[in-house]
Design brief:
single chain, 95 residues, mainly alpha, 73% helix, 0% strand, rod-shaped
């Protein structure tokens, strides 16, 4: 009986490295896309809180990504400082 299929070991020897390279490129592309999306989101969050947008890039640094959420959670945001300042000025000017 004749087999039309090639030996799997021979197929892997020929196509194995190509498949691994394609898989590695795919994983790197997906990882880069996720990293860029995370950076944009973190920069936008810091910007809306009143901090400089570049502080969001610290979320990509391993130790800083642990510390920065505490900074956001427990510090007075610049946007709230500005709001309170405007409210005090408005209360001072009202009769």
């Amino acid at each position: 009986m004749r087999c039309d299929y090639p030996n799997p070991e021979e197929m892997f020897a020929v196509f194995g490295p190509v498949i691994l390279i394609i898989l590695a490129v795919f994983v790197l592309a997906i990882s880069l896309a996720i990293l860029i999306i995370k950076a944009v989101i973190c920069c936008k969050i810091f910007s809306k809180a009143g901090y400089h947008w570049a502080l969001g890039l610290l979320m990509l640094v391993p130790i800083a990504c642990i510390i920065m959420p505490f900074v956001l959670a427990f510090s007075d945001w610049p946007i709230y400082k500005e709001l309170n300042k405007l409210r005090r000025r408005q209360n001072k000017n009202s009769p």
